[in-house]
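User: Could you check the structure of this?
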Amino acid sequence: MTEAFKDGVEPEDVIHILLTGKVIEEYPERERLLVYGEMDNGLPLHAVCDLSNEQTMYIVTTYIPSRSEWIRFQIRKDKPRKKK
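Assistant: Sure, the predicted structure tokens are below.
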């Protein structure tokens, strides 16, 4: 949450998107998923959650997604390929 606080994200915002948001990516090999939602102020928020423990969900990180990397903050843009 330290980095999230710098962006104005509060614990209540994270709880809100976890309860109301949607899973936009799954990483089964790492037992993680990426959740998207909007904070009360309308800003988008992503939360990466670790589900490797059956009894506890860990929030790995939260961040405000960049328009340059996401389409509607829900679809990852393709990175340009480097020319050889």
